[in-house]
Specification:
- The chain folds into two domains: about 1-35; about 45-325, TIM Barrel.
- The strands form three sheets. Strands 2-1-11-8-7-6-4 form a seven-stranded parallel sheet.
- It has helices at about 1-40, 55-60, 60-70, 85-95, 115-125, 160-180, 205-210, 225-230, 235-240, 260-270, 280-285, 290, 310-325, and strands at about 45-50, 75, 110, 130, 130, 185-190, 215-220, 245, 250, 270, 295-300.
- It is of the alpha/beta class.
- Residues about 1-5, about 20-40 and about 135-155 have low confidence and may be disordered.
- The N and C termini lie far apart (about 65 Å).
């Protein structure tokens, strides 16, 4: 009788073990399915930095957005304001064409109406932007839907280690203000951020990475400009996995004299439509999860300066990027 009890007990243990394994497989399968549903489908959220189409935008703002959306882009990142529209009007314009705007280069301006500006920007969907100090000789802020700064490669004062320390403090300070509006302070690199500072060994980007709070400040990595400046982008992402935003310039850069300074290297490169340059974006996007990537934007400063118009370049970039991500 005892032998039978032991046999039954063994059978019961075997059954429970098998059931547990089966349950784990089922749960594991469900977890994998859930993760597949949650994981970003990058090819369906390709964004465009609107500096790329600045010329057609100036002639027909809404018509240009309509064409951008028709090409397949689902997100935009403005570079110089919101076409003098109020936040609700601009949001309605984006909704009309199925576009989202999570990041903007059009800054808010510190001043008495800063919170009003930020409320308006939050209404439009923005989660990443700058706040700039009050403009000398001009009162008030940029207004919720006004020009708001932005633009590309503005003239910059000489940088020193001390001045960049102060800049990092200011970025964290404004990041804390933006956090109240569910936003982060954003800063995108060009090539100058990789120039050596007055100590002869440190760069502005080094200090940004070391001294800005990732919970408050999003460093938007312009992948193409970093490569043009002679940086190892893959190593950078692996060492500093904190780049939630990317700009995806492409360029022919491999034949440039490596002894040039970062800025001189960038000027010697040929910026191209996405997929027509030499940046290995397949390797870069393989690190998207590690980087913490949330949004990315095609950008081509030279769009429309070759055989195609700016929107033609955008179409080529979109098609090439979607193919790479498929």
């Amino acid at each position: 009788m005892r032998i039978m009890d032991e046999a039954q007990a063994q059978d019961r243990r075997s059954f429970l073990k098998a059931a547990a394994c089966a349950g784990s497989l089922i749960l594991g399968g469900r977890a994998r399915n859930l993760m597949a549903q949650i994981a970003p489908n990058w090819k369906n959220q390709i964004g465009l930095q609107l500096y790329t189409v600045r010329v057609p935008l100036a002639k027909d703002y809404e018509g240009t957005l309509a064409q951008v959306a028709a090409q397949g882009y689902t997100e935009i990142e403005p570079s110089s304001g919101y076409n003098n529209l109020e936040p609700a009007q601009y949001k309605a314009l984006l909704d009309k064409y199925g576009l989202k705007m999570y990041s903007s280069l059009a800054s808010a301006t510190d001043g008495p109406d800063l919170e009003k500006q930020l409320e308006g920007h939050r209404l439009m969907g923005i989660r990443y932007e700058k706040i700039t100090p009050p403009r000398q000789g001009r009162g008030g802020g940029a207004g919720p839907g006004g020009p708001g700064g932005g633009g590309q490669q503005q003239p910059r004062p000489p940088q020193t280690v001390d001045s960049v320390h102060l800049q990092c403090e200011q970025m964290n300070k404004y990041g804390a203000v933006l956090k109240k509006f569910d936003m982060k302070f954003r800063y995108d690199n060009h090539a100058a951020e990789f120039e050596l500072l007055d100590d002869g060994k440190t760069t502005q980007w080094d200090l940004f990475l070391a001294e800005t709070d990732p919970g408050l400040v999003a460093l938007e990595l312009d992948v193409g400009f970093a490569y043009m400046a002679g940086q190892d982008v893959l190593a950078m992402i692996k060492k500093h996995p904190r780049f939630e935003l990317w700009q995806t310039h492409d360029a022919k850069y491999k034949q440039v004299d490596p002894t040039l300074t970062p800025t001189a290297r960038q000027r010697a490169c040929q910026i191209t439509a996405f997929g027509e340059g030499e940046v290995d974006y397949k390797a870069v996007f393989a690190l998207a999860e590690l980087s913490g990537l949330k949004h990315f934007f095609v950008e081509q400063d030279t769009a429309g300066q070759g055989a195609r118009d700016a929107l033609g370049d955008c179409k080529v970039s979109y098609d090439n990027l979607r193919k790479l991500l498929s």
